[in-house]
Amino acid sequence: RRREPKTTEAERERQKERLKKLSRDVFRPKGPAHIVMDDESYFTLDGAAMPGNSGFYSSDRKETPTDVKHKQESKFPEKVMVWAVISYRGLGEIYVSKKGECMNRHIYIKECLPRVKKFEKKFYEAREKKDIWFWPDLATAHYAKDTVAEMTALDLQYITKELNPPNAPQIRPIENYWSALKQKVYEGNWSAKNRQQLIRRIKYSAKKIEPSTYQNLFVNLKSKMRRAVKNGLESLI
């Protein structure tokens, strides 16, 4: 089975309406649309939730060491929040949270939005600016009043809340980026002994992702948008 978000009928109606507007206003039939996308995700020390880390191979279960057969889990495992900004041209400067920190509008304005602006300057020429669209998700911090004011002050052309479809990870390539990054971080059943070791591993793994990965994530995004408008987001799964 493939996983898909649980959506209400009201959300489906909003998805349909906003996808049509988004396709018309941003993903125009003619002309480029350079999509810059950001998101945050959480990493644990052992990556126990990763499918590749959930089992083991043994010819004799009785002879398998206890520490292999049984994986102890903390009720409240330590997590590291990582924020990233990407487009088909590459990865921007990531932000790693301080201990116990979760995303809020203050962090987003101070730490994340300036990195989005730096990303645009690094990967795009001035003549392309009118075709660059910054696409955050619908998290409260991303559309708070002072966040919107800061995006305007930074001269970011962003997808407004009214155009942004709710509960729609299927159409957001950055969701697949997190899967690719976590596979690299935890490959070989790797686990961290402490927070700093995990952070170093995340930054190292992020640099190892090939440039072609970003291109592949965004390829056919325009045609996927048209398909979602016609057949619904479920058609992308």
Beta-strand share of residues:
5-15%
Largest sheet, in brief, is:
5 strands, mixed
As a percent range, the share of helical residues equals 40-55%
- Give me the Rg, rounded: 20 Å
Euclidean distance between termini CA atoms: 10 Å
Mean pLDDT rating: 87
Number of strands: 5
Find the structural class using helix and strand composition. Answer: alpha+beta
Tally the helices: 8
- The ordered string of helix (H) and strand (E) elements is HEHEEEHEHHHHH
**Low-confidence stretches at least 5 residues in length (pLDDT < 50)?**
none
Bulk shape? globular
In terms of quaternary structure, what is this? single chain
Describe this structure in words.
Strands 1, 2, 3, 4 and 5 form a five-stranded mixed sheet that branches. Helix 1 (9-25) crosses helix 8 (221-231), helix 3 packs parallel to helix 4 (145-153) and helix 5 (174-186) packs across helix 6 (195-208). The protein is 40% helix and 12% strand. The chain is of the alpha+beta class and 237 residues long. The chain has eight helices and five strands. The chain has helices at residues 9-25, 66-69, 105-123, 145-153, 174-186, 195-208, 211-218, 221-231, and strands at residues 34-44, 79-87, 90-91, 95-96, 132-135.
